[in-house]
Each structure stands twice: as C-alpha cells, then as structure tokens.
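Thread: quick sanity check before group meeting

JM: Hey all, I'm pulling together slides for Thursday and realized we never actually wrote out the predicted structure for the chain we discussed last week. Dropping the sequence here so it's in one place. If anyone has concerns about the input, flag it before I start.
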Amino acid sequence: MKSYSEVADIVSKVQKLAQIKELLQKVLESIDSVKEKCELWIEDKENLSYTEIKQFINCKTSEALHKYFSQAGSNIENLAQSAHSLERMDKENQTDDTELSASLSQELQSLRANIDTLSSEVLLQSKELKKCEQKFKDQETKNKTLEETSTKTLDATQDVDKRLNELKEEVRNELQATSTFMSRLQTFSMEFKEIKEVHEKKMEDLSAEIIDLRNTISTFFQKQDGLEAEQENLKSKPRDKMLIQENLADFFKRVQRLGRDIETLRWINVPEFYCKKSGQSDVKCTGNCFHVIGHHEQQISEGGEADLLTHLADCNKSLGHKDFIPVDRFSLEHLPPGYQNTDMYELIKVVADLTVRVSVKMTSPRRPEFWPNTKIPYFVYNLKGSQHLRTGSGIITDVMKGNNVLCTCHKCQHSDKPNIDWWRIEVQTAGSLVFDDIEANHTTIRLFYDTENCEEIVLNQEDITSSKSQTERSRLITFLTCDRNIVQKIAKMIDQYNNLFSKVNISTEVENFMFIVSHPHGCCKQISIGQWKDRYNTFGRPFSNVFLYSTCTCPGSEGASVHCVDYGKYIHQGSLKSGLNYSCYTSS
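JM (edit): ok, ran it. Output follows.
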C-alpha cells in the first residue's frame, strides 16, 4: 500500500515535469516568433535595419534560454536529486515496489526523452539561427555592395550632369557669340552700304569736277589760240589794245581759278581745316577763326604687333628717325644751352617713365563721318567696326587707393583669394585715339616699354574700370591693379614729376622750348626735343592753347604728352601738310 508522502512526492514531481513542458513550449513559441520576424525582414516586409534585427534576435534568444534554464534547470535538478534519493531509500529500506519503480523509471525515461528532444530542438534552432545569421551577413554584404555601386552610380551621374551643364553653357555661349557676330555683320553690311553710297556720290562729284576741269582746260587752250590771233590783230590794229588787255586780264583770272581747282583736286582726300575764332569743332567756322584739323598720327597695323617693326623701318615721315632720342641713351648733352640742368633732365626722364603705349583693337562703329560742322573726314572713320590694331601713346596722371572691396582685376577674377588692397591707375591720351567706351573696352597699355628687350608689363582691357572724355580731343582711362610693387613705383614717379614740374624755369637762351615722349610706330619709347612755332589760345584761359611745332613725331605718337616749358602739358594730336605738328588742349 502506497503511503501518502510517496504519492504526494510523485505528484509534486509530475507537476514540475508539467511546468518544464510548459516552459519548453513557451521557448519554442518564442523561437518561432523570432524566426517568423527574421523571415519577414529577409523578405523586406520589416523596416528594421540589419543592426536592429540582429540585436532583436540576440536579445530574444538570450531572454528565452535564460528564462528556460533558470526555471527548468532547477526543476530538473530537483527531480534528479529526488530520483537519487529514492534509489538510496530503496536500498536502505530494501523495499521492492515494482510498480512504483517502473512508474518512476518510465517518468525518468520520459523526462530524459523530453530533455533530449528539447536539446535536439534547441540545437536545431541554434543551427537555424546560425543560418539566419549567415543570411543576415550575406544580405549585409549585398547591401554594402549595392550601396557602393549606388554611390559610384550617383557620382558618375553627377559628373555626367555637370559635363552636360558645361556643354549646355558652351553651346549657349556659342549661340550668343554667333548671334552677336550676325548682328555685327548685319550692322557692318548696312554701314558698308552707306559708305559705298557716300563713296559713289563722292566719285560722281569728283567726276563732275574733273569734267569741269577738262572743260576749263579746253577753254583755256581755245582762249590761248584766240589770244594768239588777237596778238596778230593787235599788230595791225593798235586801236583794239584796250580790248586785248581786258581779254588778257580775264584769261589770267581763269588761269588762277584753274590753279585753285587743281590744288583742290590734289588734296581732296587729305583736307585740312583752320578755324581762327575758337578751338571748338562745334562752332561754325568763319574767316577770322583758328581751329586745326590735320591728319592723325595713329599707327594702324593690319598685321597686329608682328608688323610694328616693319612700319618703323618703312616710315616715310622721319627717315632713319635720327631726330628721336632712345630713352636709355638720353643724357644732359641732348638738351640745348640754358636747359642743361639736373631738374630739366630728371623731369624729362620721369615723364618718359610715366609714358605708356596705348593699343586699341576695335574701332567704334559710332565714329562720325565728319568733324562737326565741317566736311573734314573724322579720324579713321573708314575703319569703324574693324579690329585692326591702332597704337598711340599716353601718360599716367594719377594713382589712387581703392575702396574697401575685393580687387576685381583680371588676375583676381580667376583667383580663389582676390586681393583686398588695390589701386586705380589713371591714363590720359587723345580722344581721337580712344573715341568712346567701346574702344576703351578694347584698349590695353604697356608700361615701362623703354627698350625692345625689356620686360612686358601690360594692363588689359579686363582691368579697365572707367573712361571719360575730358574734351572732344582728350580722354582719361582708369585701369586697376593689385600689384603693390608697380603702384609704389608709379606713385614715387608721380611725386617726383609734380615736384620737378614746379621747379623748372624758362630760359632766355632758347625760346619756346618743348619736349615730347612717345611710342613711334608702337615700338619702344623715344624722346623728341624742339621748339614750338605758333600758339593759339582758344578760350582765353590756361591749358586752352593749341601749339604748332616742328618737334619730331611719327604715327604712334598721337596721345603723347607735349610739355611746353612755362605753358604746361598738352596732348599730341597730329600733323599738317605744311610739315608742322599740332597739339590739342586739355581740361587742366
């Protein structure tokens, strides 16, 4: 008969086995839940990242195993200890209860089987988890590879887009340039048509004048034949002497008119104009006025810089250029008596230092055909719209510190670090050389061009900030630079010039002394020393003088500074058929 304590003990162990089974079922359910969530993640039905899903698996697995082993482990250990205790009790009491032993043995075998099954399932789940983990790693590798490929593809796409935008910009610029060219071509075509019409009209007028001249010459010879007949009649008829004298007087008047007509035809393409009333070309000329319009002295070079030395060698105005003094050879001995002093020598040297070559690569389409209120062709009107190189001269008059903005010179526009310190350099030249802003925007200057082999220092048209007309004959162009060494050098020269200009005195030994520094034919600078011949004050105030002089100049000298001692600084304008040269007045 079973005792109560034995039955109670067995019931307790059965309950613990039931608890172990329940725990195992919960563990399996938890594992199935984790497995299901992982499969959903693999199929991209979960939005968790790889790190998050991996952390979820580890956390849930650890939690399930910990819960199982912490609770079931103690129950299993108790059951095992109870079994050993029963065995010891059986041995001690030597009781043989076959049914109880068989029952306990079956329970133990069942428990061991369940434990083995659980271990097998845990092992199987562990293998499944390892497979899942390997899949996660493989997927992570694929994702990483895909991400790298996507990054490379994105970079390549961005490069293609950038290049495409650059190509679009280039095409847009080409189209704009083509449109501008076509517009200019149309303008040039219209202007050429107008020029052609004017030329044809001039040719018609010239043909008519030639016909009139031929008729006059024919009449002259007819009159000459008639005169010979009249002379024969005079011998036989003395009473007709008065009539013959009248015919002779009329004949000589016709001859004088014929001479004037021939002279007019001779100079029809190179006219000059003198207006003695005022120096303004917008004032209508009268017989008592003086206004000079001669011929320009710009060096025009269709071949550009390469042909300048050829123009120098082929010059017809100053054969050999013997009256020019190269800057690097100038000395006190070149000055006339009375001016051979250090102040005058240094003044001429510093004027030479400040002199620049001016190069213009565009002739404005806005140039007028004639000087105002005259029929005198305006300088290089026939070249308007062309890109032939025209060179002249100029002089630096001032250097000014820029305001508190970054430098915008050509060099700084293409730099990542534009300079903060920059300066304006002001250059004065002839208004007929640089006519307007269009020409100013195609103008460059070369500084310190003393010899053919010297360093080339150029301020480009990209460095121009402004240009303004002082008078109809002079223009100021402002360049900018951030080259501190050049600025300091120029500032020192300007201070020296202002100091010396106020110190030089007129000498009684040489009257009307003057000098010019220019760039003949666009080549290195030369000094000319001479005397002025005539002076005309156009407004009755200082600096409104027009000077005529024989001091040597050439094409390329236009715009150069003309220093007439005791009268100040003026600008060289051009030359006259008489062989004299002339200046224009300035505003200061």
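AS: nice. The chain has three domains: 4-162, 177-266, 295-584. The CA atoms of residues 575 and 581 lie 4 Å apart.
JM: adding both to the slides.
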